[in-house]
Amino acid sequence: MILIKLGGSVITDKTQYRIFNRDTVRRLCAEIKDSGVDSVIVHGAGSFGHVLAKKYSLQNGLVDPAQVPAVARVQYDVRELNLMMLDELLNAGIPAVSVPPGSCFMMADGKLLLDDPEVLLSASRLGIMPVMFGDVVFDRNKGFGICSGDQIVEVLCGIYHPERVVFVSDVDGLFEKDPKTNPDSKLLTEVTSELLSRVSSDSSVDDVTGGVRAKMEAMLRMTSPERDCVLVNGSVKGRLCSLLKGERVISTTAKGGL
User: Fold this and answer.
1) Backbone phi, then psi, for 174, in 5-degree steps?
2) What is the mean pLDDT of the chain?
3) What is the mean pLDDT of residues 116-132?
4) Do 173 and 199 form a contact (C-beta atoms < 8 A)?
């Protein structure tokens, strides 16, 4: 089984509030279907989550009552995004159901907790794809916090034990610096823990889940002798499908653990 994270940067325009890249998502869903692989999907919140989350500092937990309406609004927005994602998956012929993280996860000081994976595993056993997404999740100590898609993928690795984890973004892979603002930045075709100190954590858009460095760390944590973790550009037609079929494409592969 392959665990796929569709990043908010490719399914939305992260620079504008609530802009859904429907044509791109439709193509990616078709590529996943055409690849024929058994998969589970997690998607990012993109501009449906990050814009308001950053404005109200939701990643810091409850510090101001004015944040409370924003929690409700962000949960509403990311669920609407999830329903649009499900619509495209169903239209592509993939039976998919929504599993909102804010309804089944808790946090404790930012650590994501899942007491019982039975719902997820039951869906998968029936051939139904559970689809999770970046969300606001209640926190036992901080009131609430941001649950990123990357955190969810990491938890799901312990549940599904996928043979591969694929992160789909809007860049060719991980770079030494943000390629959108540094066009001469070098693509890192292989990531190891030794590279962490040399990679910029700058980001060109609002992101409350950690940016490039957090992405690298998450990818490395998910690797094992039996599992690789790949970052691929979903904005390029056919690249995700080729990768899922086992073909070599331009990408970054994490190896060696953190």
Assistant:
1) -90, 140
2) 91
3) 95
4) no
What DSSP element (H or E) covers 139?
A: strand 135-139
Nearest residue to 135 (alpha-carbon basis) of 122, 151, 121: 151
CA distance 249 to 85: 25
Q: Name the strands in the sheet holding 106-108, side by side, starting at the edge strand that comes first in the sequence.
A: 111-113, 106-108, 135-139, 143-147
- Identify the residue whose tokens are 């694929």: 166
Pairing of the two strands 143-147 and 135-139: antiparallel
**Contact between residue 131 and residue 85 where contact means Cβ atoms under 8 Å apart:** yes
Rg (CA), the chain: 17
CA atoms within 13 A on the CB side of 228: 15
Four-CA torsion 134, 96, 231, 77, nearest 10 degrees: -30
- Of the listed ranges 28-37, 107-116, 186-195, the one predicted with least confidence: 186-195
Whose structure tokens read 């944590």?
A: 221
Whether the CB-CB separation of 99 and 132 falls below 8 Å is answered with yes
β-bridge partners, 74 = none
Distance CA 258, CA 77 (A): 34
Q: What's the rounded Cα separation, in Å, for the pair 188 and 199?
A: 10
pTM (2 d.p.) = 0.90
Contact 146, 214 (CB under 8 A): no
Segment (H or E) for 154: helix 149-160
Strand order in the sheet with 2-6: 96-98, 129-133, 39-43, 2-6, 164-169, 228-233, 251-254, 190-191
Alpha-carbon gap, residue 178 to 185, rounded angstroms: 7
